[in-house]
């Protein structure tokens, strides 16, 4: 199920980016949106990748 949703999101991404580019006429807004979306994703990745402290 998770893989299916992941593929669906991955398939929508290029279409959405193309629609943003077509709607604005410039790649600048599209790239800014992508950078803004990467901020919370980077934070989640950093939090998920932290080491778990040893429990004694």
Describe this structure in words.
With 56 residues, the chain is an all-alpha fold. 82% of the residues lie in helices and 0% in strands. It has helices at residues 2-24, 27-49. Helix 1 packs antiparallel against helix 2. The longest helix has 23 residues, at 2-24. The chain is elongated, with a radius of gyration of 16 Å. The model has no long low-confidence stretch (mean pLDDT 90).
Q: Would you summarize the structure shown here?
A:
Helix content is 82%, strand content 0%. The chain is mainly α and 56 residues long.
* Strand segment tally: 0
Quote the average pLDDT.
90
Stretches with pLDDT under 50, minimum 5 residues: none
Shape: elongated
Which percent range describes the beta-strand content?
under 5%
Number of helices: 2
Distance between the termini: 37 Å
The level of helicity is: over 70%
Give the helix/strand class. mainly alpha
Q: How would a textbook summarize the main sheet?
A: none
Oligomer: single chain
Order of secondary-structure elements: HH
What's the gyration radius in Å?
A: 16 Å
List the keywords.
56 residues, 82% helix, single chain, mainly alpha, elongated, 2 helices
How are the SSEs ordered, and which strands pair?
Blueprint: H1 2-24, H2 27-49
